[in-house]
Write a structure and sequence with these properties.
alpha+beta, tt1808, chain A, six-stranded mixed beta sheet
């Protein structure tokens, strides 16, 4: 959620003749907390988990949250930590400590910053310039408290090196904007809840909590079904045992006659 930069604008990629100094260490943490409050934390984790589920079958898509992005070779003083970001066309959807633009060959395609009182102004100015300089195609900002800016959702698309605002619509008390990069709608529901919507399928993407509830419900239903089958099997076995006992009793009676 923080930015460490020498200047406000990301510098161009190093020249082809520049060689990476492999002795330089790049910290994987900036020492800052992941989120300032439950409002920021909930929006961050829900969005990351929903996007990871959405693109779980795409090995060329990488989703991360609050992880350092280094964008200047041989300079570990310069980094930015987007709250949520997505990269398309990656070399592999494997775990990373940090994202290195020059090693990966590209910057993130999508970034979402979640506002707090201490970060929202930097998100709107300094980070905006950094992301534009890096070539981030879409930059979104969300205010989960409604105390930093209005409306609570801002989306911008990079055009000719500058960000242009993505139009938003409001219907049934839902503020909505479409992300071409993700192919999804960002929606702010009443109560300032940020949700992702698939306009093609007409379905909402599940949050982590909803996925867990659905999983538990499925496990409960499976357990109930298994218990019902076990009860039915027990009843069948009891009926067979009773019928066998009656047959044996009948044979005993017939033998006495």
């Amino acid at each position: 959620m923080t930015t460490r930069a020498i200047s406000g604008v990301a510098q161009p990629p190093p020249g082809a003749d520049e060689i990476e100094d492999l002795s330089i260490e790049y910290p994987s943490s900036d020492g800052e907390p992941m989120a300032e409050s439950d409002w920021q934390y909930g929006a961050l984790t829900d969005t990351v988990s929903a996007l990871r589920v959405r693109f779980r079958d795409r090995p060329d898509v990488y989703i991360a949250g609050d992880m350092l992005v280094y964008y200047r070779m041989n300079d570990n003083r310069v980094s930015v930590a987007p709250d949520v970001y997505a990269v398309f066309g990656t070399t592999g959807n494997h775990r990373r400590h940090s994202w290195f633009v020059w090693r990966e060959g590209k910057a993130p395609d999508f970034v979402l910053e979640i506002a707090s009182q201490s970060t929202w102004e930097r998100d709107a100015v300094e980070k905006r310039d950094i992301y534009a300089g890096m070539g981030v195609t879409e930059y979104w900002r969300f205010d989960p408290t409604g105390e930093c800016f209005t409306p609570a959702l801002v989306g911008e698309r990079l055009e000719d090196g500058e960000y242009r605002e993505i139009p938003l619509s409001s219907e049934d008390s839902i503020l909505r904007g479409h992300s071409d990069v993700l192919g999804l709608d960002f929606c702010v529901l009443p109560g300032l809840e940020l949700r992702l919507y698939d306009p093609v399928s007409g379905l909402w993407l599940h949050t982590h909590q909803e996925s867990e509830i659905a999983r538990e419900a499925a496990e409960t239903a499976l357990g109930t079904e298994q218990a019902a089958r076990q009860d039915a099997e027990a009843a069948r076995q009891a009926a067979e045992d009773e019928a066998r006992m009656l047959r044996e009793r009948l044979r005993e009676l017939e033998s006495r006659e």
